[in-house]
Design brief:
By secondary structure, the protein is an alpha/beta fold. The chain contains three helices and five strands; from the N terminus they run αβββαβαβ. The relative contact order is 0.16.
Length: about 150
């Protein structure tokens, strides 16, 4: 009987070990495949990457030639560089506005200038509106893979 008990004990030990190994393997995560972020086409892919060597100096930003946005408390404006008029846009209109520009409007590559207007009445509410509009603009630019340059 002593020999039979040792055989049964070995079978029980091996069964317990196999069950523990199975439980450990069942709880481990499968290897993760690296994820590749697929960007949706924006219509701006033909515009080259930004080239900072082409930017005007900070002291001469009046000669900026790429698209130029002004963040105000009442919204986001794009500056018409031909006459310096500001055309107000919603965040939803920004992609179509940028895509509609000819390639010649992007001499520095896929980068825009962003300036922030000083509110006429700087209250907590107007400052919050500025922050919200700035976040909407920068989020939209990020989705479009357009870099931005801060106006001094």
């Amino acid at each position: 009987m002593a020999g039979g008990e040792s055989v049964v004990r070995n079978i029980v030990q091996r069964t317990v070990i196999l069950m523990l190994l199975g439980a450990l393997l069942g709880c481990s995560k499968p290897p993760q495949m690296p994820t590749v972020e697929m960007r949706q086409p924006t219509g701006l892919e033909s515009i080259p990457a930004p080239d900072p060597s082409k930017y005007p100096s900070f002291s001469n930003m009046a000669h900026w030639q790429n698209p130029y946005f002004v963040v105000r408390e009442d919204g986001i404006g794009i500056v018409d560089l031909s006459n310096r008029e500001i055309h107000m846009l919603t965040a939803e209109q920004i992609p179509a506005e940028l895509v509609s520009l000819p390639p010649s409007a992007w001499p520095y590559g896929r980068v825009v200038l962003v300036a922030q207007a000083v509110p006429k009445n700087p209250t907590k509410e107007t400052k919050a509106d500025l922050r919200k509009n700035r976040a909407l603009l920068l989020g939209t630019l990020q989705q479009l893979d357009v870099q931005f340059h801060e106006a001094p």
